Amino acid sequence: LGMTVLKMNQYKLDPFVFPFIEKPSVTQIKDALEELILLGAIDENSGSITELCMQMAFIQASPMISKMLID
After folding, report:
1. How confident is the model at residue 19 (pLDDT cuts 50, 70, 90)?
2. CA 42 to chain CA centroid, nearest Å
3. ∠58-64-67 over CA atoms, to 5°?
4. Which among 31, 36, 61, 71 is most buried, taking Cβ atoms within 10 Å?
5. pTM of whole model > 0.90?
6. Backbone phi, then psi, for 37, in 5-degree steps?
7. Do 55 and 66 touch, CB atoms closer than 8 A?
8. Which residues pair with 49 in a beta bridge?
9. 3-class secondary structure for 1-49?
10. What is the radius of gyration, based on Cα positions, of the chain?
């Protein structure tokens, strides 16, 4: 779910209101967002994506693997 939420943020889509075929729980979405904040892909204060997020989205791997490859 982390990569899906990352890509959704890249395209400015709200994962809480997006019409998923099989909607994940609010807790799962919050956990994915928290992971992206901890990895530095989303700015905690503004909620906007960072340059790192753009690089991670380009790699097309899980957020943690993407971050590891970039560092």
Report:
1. very high
2. 7
3. 55
4. 36
5. no
6. -65, -45
7. yes
8. 42
9. CHHHHHHHHHCCCCCCCCCCCCCCCHHHHHHHHHHHHHHCCECCCCCCE
10. 11
Q: Using an 8 Å Cβ cutoff, are 1 and 22 in contact? A: no
Which residues have C-beta within 8 Å of that of residue 47, sequence separation ≥ 6? none
Quickly tell me which residue has 């892909």 as its tokens.
41
pLDDT exceeds cutoff 90 at 22: yes
- Between CA 17 and CA 23 the distance in angstroms is 9
Tokens 């400015």 locate to 12
13 residue type, one letter: L
- State residue 49 phi and psi, 5-degree precision: -75, 155
